[in-house]
Specification:
Keywords: Cell membrane, Membrane, Transmembrane, Transmembrane helix. The chain is mostly helical. 79% of the residues lie in helices and 0% in strands. The protein has helices at residues 6-9, 13-40, 46-73, 75-78, 90-105, 111-120, 125-157, 162-187.
């Protein structure tokens, strides 16, 4: 979803879907915003964009769980994991997996350490996966609809400056997420 324009509109649907999915692995909120704007501009269908977003984000979330589980088995991988600093027990993660997953989906910067910790401490996978998928459906859809609304306004009213407005909107999403993540890190 790097380019939003006529070149994107002329691409086959499968390539659009793959672009969106890959984008979610890089920066999922940016991929969501750009997909929403592209859908609003008519360059990609809403169904294709949302389906690809949901799939990419859910696969990424399950991958974080898998990374944590692999880190629990192979000490070499542990040094690459960002786990909560306070010692948590397997019991605590098992009992609170639904709450952990649901809340961390809506708090920027929380998913990486908490989802990998769920895998590391062997929280029940089925509860983790179902909660991650449901939270993804809600969060991604809300952000997508917001991006369609704001992106549509920018495309309609900003003339030649619309691309600067879109870049500012995307940058705002990234900066706010990073700022919240940094605040969380400092408070831990």
């Amino acid at each position: 979803m790097i380019a939003i324009g006529p070149a994107l509109a002329s691409q086959p649907a499968w390539l659009k879907a793959v672009s969106i999915i890959v984008g979610t692995f890089i920066l999922e909120d940016v991929a969501t915003v750009l997909s929403g704007v592209a859908a609003r501009a008519g360059h990609v269908s809403i169904a294709l964009a949302l389906g690809a977003l949901w799939f990419g984000v859910a696969v990424g979330d399950l991958g974080l769980y898998g990374l944590g589980a692999a880190g629990a088995r192979w000490p070499y991988l542990r040094r690459f994991l960002t786990l909560p600093k306070q010692e948590r027990t397997q019991d605590w993660f098992s009992k609170n997996v639904i709450r952990i997953v649901a809340i961390s989906r809506f708090v920027p910067g929380a998913r990486l350490p908490l989802y990998t910790a769920c895998g590391f401490f062997r929280a029940p996978f089925l509860r983790f996966a179902l909660t991650a998928v449901l939270a993804t459906l809600v969060w991604t859809t809300l952000l997508f609809l917001l991006a369609m609304r704001i992106g549509g306004w920018l495309l309609a009213h900003q003339g030649g400056w619309r691309w600067a407005g879109l870049a500012g909107f995307v940058l705002c999403i990234v900066v706010v997420g990073r700022l919240i993540a940094r605040i969380q890190t400092v408070s831990q």
